[in-house]
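Task: sequence design from structure.
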């Protein structure tokens, strides 16, 4: 116990030296969070928990009621989150409408209990007839086994997944059912989609995309194969090469995914990224045979992330190849299959991502 708190105190001292405060909520901001996570001593045996919270529909609130009203909601959100935290826990404003809670000496059960409490409070809160809705993601573990930065990434990834499947109303529940069914039937697809979503976010960050665009592209990566729900198990799990008819059926999955996501209000750009992730820079892809920058940026990013993970993962018909080989293939096909600028960024920077 004493070793744990000694380590935590070291991290807090580092934090106190470099923390910046968000003027609106008074909470430390994202740069403080990143430095805190990176400098957290990797010596704790006890578990540390991380919770990520992201507001739903906040852009629409700002557009409809103005930024002053949105600022009031963010201040209220910060007050609610802080009111539920114990002594020694830390709360950060990690982005425009994102908050992060760091819970020392806490496990995933405690984190999920906190999430449930916050859900209940936010669901009952109204501010001038406007409700507050947040999606949450959590993670926990000993930083002897996994770094604080990776725990944050896990919580963030879980939050984005929840944000997608918690779309309002029946249509959102339909998406949840489809994703759950695909993941349960083909666990390999779930792992692949999570990795592609992470790679999309890293490539988007390296390419200089905004925070909101990064959130969108991560979800696009996670959802890019949702149309495979309509492809039979015999095709998805086939150990040999696909025949002509099977290839034709497989090539339909972007269009099926597009139709599914187009039923969700506000998911038009996401649906376009899913539809076009098999288009090629030289115009020989499918289903629209788009060329160059006619292909949505999100789809161009997904195409590279999808290819890299496919090459470096075991498949029913072949073993995984190395990351070095995968990067070589992406560069070799830059300007034909892939956006050459994005391919160059990926090849130069992806080896340092962790």
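Answer:
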């Amino acid at each position: 116990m004493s070793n744990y708190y000694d380590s935590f105190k070291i991290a807090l001292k580092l934090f106190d030296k470099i923390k910046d405060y968000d003027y609106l909520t008074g909470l430390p901001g994202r740069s403080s969070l990143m430095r805190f996570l990176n400098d957290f001593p990797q010596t704790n045996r006890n578990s540390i928990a991380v919770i990520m919270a992201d507001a739903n529909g906040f852009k629409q609130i700002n557009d409809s009621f103005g930024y002053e009203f949105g600022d009031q909601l963010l201040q209220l959100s910060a007050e609610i989150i802080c009111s539920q935290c114990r002594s020694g826990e830390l709360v950060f404003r990690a982005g425009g409408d994102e908050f992060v809670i760091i819970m020392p000496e806490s496990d995933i059960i405690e984190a999920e209990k906190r999430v449930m409490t916050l859900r209940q409070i936010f669901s009952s809160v109204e501010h001038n007839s406007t409700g507050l809705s947040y999606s949450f993601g959590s993670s926990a573990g000993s930083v002897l086994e996994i770094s604080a930065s990776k725990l944050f990434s896990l919580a963030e990834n879980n939050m984005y997944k929840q944000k997608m499947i918690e779309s309002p109303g029946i249509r959102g529940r339909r998406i949840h059912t489809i994703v759950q069914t695909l993941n349960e039937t083909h666990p390999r697809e779930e792992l692949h989609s999570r990795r592609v979503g992470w790679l999309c976010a890293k490539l988007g960050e390296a390419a200089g995309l905004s925070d909101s665009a990064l959130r969108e592209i991560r979800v696009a990566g996670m959802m890019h194969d949702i149309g495979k729900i309509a492809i039979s198990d015999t095709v998805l799990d086939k150990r040999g090469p696909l025949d002509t008819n099977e290839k034709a059926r497989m090539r339909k999955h972007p269009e099926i995914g597009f139709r599914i996501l187009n039923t969700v209000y506000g998911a038009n750009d996401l649906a376009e990224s899913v539809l076009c992730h098999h288009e090629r820079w030289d115009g020989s892809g499918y289903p629209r045979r788009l060329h160059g920058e006619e292909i949505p940026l999100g789809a161009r990013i997904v195409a590279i992330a999808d290819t890299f993970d496919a090459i470096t993962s075991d498949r029913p018909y072949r073993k995984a190849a190395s990351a070095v080989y995968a990067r070589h293939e992406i560069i070799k096909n830059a300007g034909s299959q892939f956006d050459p600028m994005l391919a160059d960024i990926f090849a130069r920077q992806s080896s340092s991502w962790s």
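The mean pLDDT is 85.
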